[in-house]
């Protein structure tokens, strides 16, 4: 395929090389710091004049022997302005990480990740078959030295347009020059269970009681139920009509199947083993490390095994010439299952199936006749699905970078950095006969799918720098360079629905289908930077970048810039001695962005492409053609205008320090779907620059050391953030709704409109339960009520007569907080981290499974359906319930979308607690150990929610490729709580 050059325009400088941050102090907790000096391997030093941007640093102590499978999970609660949510507790699943709000209407809102100078993308799902795949799970957290989270224009400008959502720089561990060879080993074993899951499914007795009540409630509506005179009649009627296989002549088979337990382990187990050796002489330093991470998650057949190797070498050929190389490799074996809203999802099936129906038949075979109205065909036994419909994957990832620094003249230096990421994925789906997961399958034939994905990306940056100090007061810096990126994505898929043999080879099938996809996009960038600092007091810096991106239309290039300045007040003669730090800073910049560039699929959207399908006829012809996509040659850059004003104030030699930031980020020319005038045969929607978003907020970080002496230390760090994103403009569309779209990537409860919060809930308003009859409106006691409109002045029991209304809330927390404490007494230490998210709502995407108000009489439900639903059934009366009277077929459609299924997501979580004891050098003389530490750690230990009706994890989301997944709960594997014990050895 001929690939056009499409150049990414970015909003300022982009040095893709590794950023090495020289900071005032390194701590084991996250702390907001200014960029004082950045050496981007090309010796491009951002002197104190660059001290205009804020970022957070999370040190290696937070990543070592962590039970988490990916680095982004560790950042939760540790970084001001960072909001985290997880699509699943299954290791390797994708996550949403949002820094200072959402900046675009399409694409992933995740930040850009850079590992040892290699730009690896935004952690969005790129799997074909797996429920989701987080590319960051390929990186061993134990190999990390530190993570820097860059947030404002002055900092993210270094990474161009791909850094518009923020940048997370990961630096792996390296050896040191003139260091004796050192060895490190650590291991940890943990037990995991659900962190927060209050969905309680009915047992057999509860299920029968509910069915009896449902029959009683349905008298006069279901004609054949009119003969019911008492609850015994109701029970017999329910069992004989809806459970006849398990009820015969008044006798009920002795079955009480707990389907949730049947598809889950009692506990998940996670094991980690890590080793490293490092050292160096005067000219060469090295480090070689490796790890094995094994996780057997809650779902029975799921598994995650990762072997990682990493190496780093740095060499001084001379005082002027230096070389460096970093290599990271991982091999992952992962087993997953059908996820999302798939009918074959064993997790959702386990809460839907009747407890009266057994897993196995009397002869020991699987009971495949389980479903009457649960939306599943014969063969959808979740236990057999787990065992006989396998999804297994292998992922091999290489991330490597090489750099060269050459100081060819006084004050001048040249840097060249080359980084590459290569990922090979093989995803296999093997479904045995008798499990017709796909409607095209026959009961006596199976399915085999083999999906191969190759992703190859590289970036090469060359830069020339000049740094001069004059009279010890004037510091001048200048840099110029060019950077090139290439991204290639190749997919080859083979499938068959006619497998005649259980062995996974296509020669045993009757017919095969093969498809492929080859995508590529490129970026070319030219950049320049000037900076000046006077006497460590006044600093200014300016950056200019010219970027081009091959995915755009006629105009592929854009020019972007940033300006910043700072004033170190503490260096002034008039500054009171009270201040150990007093720095004020401000920056403004215009950055470019292409939100879809980091997700595979729309790389050629600027051109109108046709397709031809020869499989199906149309109008008597053997095939048909149409528009594959409607291109827009006028598509141009999004422009993000960033304003940041902040400062740091420190007292008592920075034992008490405050950092405050105010920011405003306006994204203009926002890309979104635009619908041109309809024509015969298409085209449909196309991308166009039609929107404008407005992000604003505050961030506060407080760090302190209240007690610090030879025996006892107490360190505390707290961060808080306020953030809100508004839709300022949406040209051509007064209201954008996602009603009727129930895919994993959508959310029918939200909408977009000018003047409203991004992703604001726009739904029919729930008004509760009718307490008495109202003949004038046809309302009966127990009916579900809805407000007729947003004024909430009138109600109706007909949901379709109620108008949707704005709620003023979205799934994005307005407030985020994190508080960490560390106590050290001699060799004993105790630390804990609390995180909290406030002022937001979350939605239950599987409410029609968990409580359906009588629509599906053979589906199981949560216990609230029995104990908290209105009924006048004799002996079971309940007139003060939260849920309406359940009636067969649910004629009121109360189970469908409304604000009834929204909950306040406000919560506080004990994110981590760790107690450790170090034996120090007790064994140094006897066996050579200079470190021997044992510890007990817990993660996600406690979760307190403020909404008593919230029964699912408030940090849930459905995917990482769109903001629409935020706050949407599918009944996936839940977020996990871990209790683990480990040891660390060093010699």
TrEMBL record:
<feature type="domain" description="TonB-dependent receptor plug">
    <location>
        <begin position="53"/>
        <end position="167"/>
    </location>
</feature>
<keyword id="KW-0472">Membrane</keyword>
<dbReference type="InterPro" id="IPR036942">
    <property type="entry name" value="Beta-barrel_TonB_sf"/>
</dbReference>
<keyword id="KW-0813">Transport</keyword>
<dbReference type="InterPro" id="IPR023997">
    <property type="entry name" value="TonB-dep_OMP_SusC/RagA_CS"/>
</dbReference>
<dbReference type="Pfam" id="PF00593">
    <property type="entry name" value="TonB_dep_Rec_b-barrel"/>
</dbReference>
<comment type="similarity">
    <text>Belongs to the TonB-dependent receptor family.</text>
</comment>
<protein>
    <submittedName>
        <fullName>SusC/RagA family TonB-linked outer membrane protein</fullName>
    </submittedName>
</protein>
<keyword id="KW-0812">Transmembrane</keyword>
<keyword id="KW-0732">Signal</keyword>
<feature type="domain" description="TonB-dependent receptor-like beta-barrel">
    <location>
        <begin position="345"/>
        <end position="830"/>
    </location>
</feature>
<dbReference type="InterPro" id="IPR037066">
    <property type="entry name" value="Plug_dom_sf"/>
</dbReference>
<feature type="signal peptide">
    <location>
        <begin position="1"/>
        <end position="21"/>
    </location>
</feature>
<dbReference type="Pfam" id="PF07715">
    <property type="entry name" value="Plug"/>
</dbReference>
<keyword id="KW-0798">TonB box</keyword>
<keyword id="KW-1134">Transmembrane beta strand</keyword>
<dbReference type="InterPro" id="IPR012910">
    <property type="entry name" value="Plug_dom"/>
</dbReference>
<dbReference type="GO" id="GO:0009279">
    <property type="term" value="C:cell outer membrane"/>
</dbReference>
<dbReference type="InterPro" id="IPR000531">
    <property type="entry name" value="Beta-barrel_TonB"/>
</dbReference>
<keyword id="KW-0998">Cell outer membrane</keyword>
<dbReference type="InterPro" id="IPR039426">
    <property type="entry name" value="TonB-dep_rcpt-like"/>
</dbReference>
<dbReference type="InterPro" id="IPR023996">
    <property type="entry name" value="TonB-dep_OMP_SusC/RagA"/>
</dbReference>
